[in-house]
Write a structure and sequence with these properties.
The protein has one helix and eleven strands, in the order ββββββββββαβ. It starts with 46 loop residues before the first strand and ends in an 11-residue tail after the last strand. The N terminus is likely disordered. The chain is mostly beta strands and 186 residues long.
Length: 186
């Protein structure tokens, strides 16, 4: 006779049983950006971020990004889709100047997109974006030569190194895999 017990299905607040395939969840996976330190100049001058979720297994990252007026991200190629929701300010792609993104704009970028991001220098406030990227950004220099790769691993590395260098507390963001919070990576 086996000593294993039959698992009892979880239930909703009303008492309805949940399917056995549901993921047991003792707490919500949530972070409040107000409790996260702003990692300054993480992706260049005037480009700051707060990591919300960094999933190495799926190579996905979600950040709250802040761009000072005039800040720019070099030409880059997306290996996977990206989503950008503008909370504050204005930004554009040099390749699409007739389509500025302003508060309330949601932009979907399919994998294979290529563009150069900038926050106009004449902006009177910082530009704040909620950014979700799947895959990597392959970054290029002005002459078209390879510059760098920005992916979930790079975001995690930058978060740990720059938090330490800037004397910030280690941010508690949502990780991947078992869908849990991060621990100190330093």
């Amino acid at each position: 006779m086996s000593s294993m017990t039959t698992p009892v299905p979880a239930s909703t607040m009303s008492g309805a049983s949940l399917p056995l395939v549901s993921l047991p969840q003792s707490e919500l996976l949530t972070v409040n950006e107000a409790n996260l330190p702003l990692i300054e100049n993480a992706l260049g001058d005037g480009i700051h971020f707060k990591p919300l979720r960094v999933d190495l297994e799926r190579n996905e990252w979600v950040v709250l990004a802040t761009f000072k007026p005039g800040a720019e991200i070099q030409l880059h190629y997306h290996t996977g889709p990206a989503e950008v929701y503008t909370l504050q300010g204005c930004w554009q792609y040099k390749e699409h100047l007739s389509q500025p993104q302003t508060p309330g704009s949601y932009l979907y970028e399919p994998g294979g997109s290529v563009h150069t991001f900038f926050a106009p220098a004449e902006n009177t406030e910082d530009t704040i974006l909620l950014v979700r990227v799947a895959g990597a950004n392959i970054n290029f220099n002005e002459d078209g030569s390879f510059h760098s790769i920005l992916d979930a691993l790079a975001i995690r590395h930058l978060t740990g190194v720059l938090s330490a260098e800037q004397g910030l507390s280690e941010p508690r963001y949502i990780g991947g895999g078992e869908a849990a919070y991060t621990t100190d990576h330093r």
